Amino acid sequence: MMLTMLAPQTMAETVQSKPAQAAAAAVKIDFKGAADNYLKQNADQYGFKANLSDLKHVSTTKTDVASYVRYQQTVEGSDVFYHQVTVTLDAKGTPVLIVSDYVPNLTGLKTKSKLNENDAEGKALGHNKVKKTKELVSRIFGYYVEGSKAVPAYKVTAVDDESLATWETFVSAEDGTILKNKDVNRKVDGTGKVFLPNPLESAGTKVGFADNNDADSTALTNQLKTVTLRGLDGSGYLRGQYVRTNQSGFNSFSATNTFNYTRNSKHFENVMVYYHIDELQRYIQSLGFTNINNRQIYVNVNGTTADNSFYSPSTKQLTFGTGGVDDAEDAGIIAHEYGHSIHDNQVPGFGNTLQGGAMGEGFGDYLGAIWEDKLAPSSFGTACVGEWDAVTYDSSSNPPCLRRLDNNKVMPGSWKGQVHADGEIWSQGAYEMAQQLGVDVATKIILQSHFSLTPSSGFNNGAAAIKAADALLNGGANATTITAIWAARGISTL
């Protein structure tokens, strides 16, 4: 983009009579003409054609102090998408600012398109997996700039009825290639109250905390923290880039995007899952991954009355249970279930063997544990996941735990053939990587390793993939440590 400030002209002061002033005021200034003349006079400086033949006048906007003349760059009469020029003129018609996106000397022009607008629409909707749209906003032919070339293309804009995303997709009219694609909906931030990560771990004690069938208590309410809910779609519902709450017909709405509830409200669990899943996905992207479960996931926080939650590979949705402590009230449980979604996204069908199933449960526990540690970095809850959820079934432990990540289980002696119990073998190896290498380093290596796996991979495959991922990411700097950690669990990295 070129932006040029122009020096104001120096004019001799004159004293005019009132009739003369009135006559001067009556003179109509041709702002577009003044802008045209200036651009022609300075065509070489900006790379314009001398006659401005590829600049189409779009509008002239007048205000009390200035006028703004806008032009659209074109090729063979069609718009060059998003490439414009504006001229700002003061009240006397003198140009004071030029802003230009004009691309001079565009090359490689092709004027015969092979796709029609219906073909382009199909390509765009297919790319974004839009199954249903009530409103096709537009299908416009024009030119898309790639470097110094103008590529004939269609700009297809469509609203996805399911996600409510508004996709703007540029499709090459020559071969159907997707040139650019983005959701143009304006995202907004909201606020809400959540547990970070659960009331026991943030308080550092289990004393004074009980479920009491979802009843509020002073102790529980005191552990609520105000957070920013990022990426909301502006509809007033808890829907955003990475999460869509869908609570069996019970959705949370706020015209001001303010979602402050206590835990006895059905809305509270919606806020919990939105915040923690959204932040988890943002954390994954902060590690450098934009292709791991980077999607909007549907979540039903009251989908079953059982004390159980699950991810469905067929529907790609998460469901949380309300038995005991509602599962969606505990960030560790939320992260665990999201871990299953991550595995399925990276390796569709993962967990086809008992060892693979145990790896899936172990990774979910790992993700839950490190997420809890990040949100409440204290010794209470270390190597433990789901403290709040566990108060109804683990009264003897302090803290109570869904599962631990330091039971020193090993292969083959500790193997039970039950994925949750055997998952503690895998989760401890992963958790010890986080302790010794740092959480971010370990998590990045583990996520990278998943791409190497197959649906039927087992423990040895997983450990070998972790070692290979470290070699790719860090030149093998952690190879000795990784080998030792997994050897202690009876698992080979070879």
Automatic annotation (TrEMBL):
Keywords: Hydrolase, Metal-binding, Metalloprotease, Protease, Signal, Zinc. SUPFAM superfamilies: Metalloproteases ('zincins'), catalytic domain. InterPro entries: FTP_domain (IPR011096), Peptidase_M36 (IPR001842), Peptidase_M4/M1_CTD_sf (IPR027268), Zinc_Metalloprotease_M4 (IPR050728). Residues 54-97 form the FTP domain. The keyword Protease applies. One of its GO terms (molecular function) is metalloendopeptidase activity. One of its GO terms (biological process) is proteolysis. GO terms for cellular component: extracellular space. Pfam families: FTP, Peptidase_M36. This is Peptidase M36.
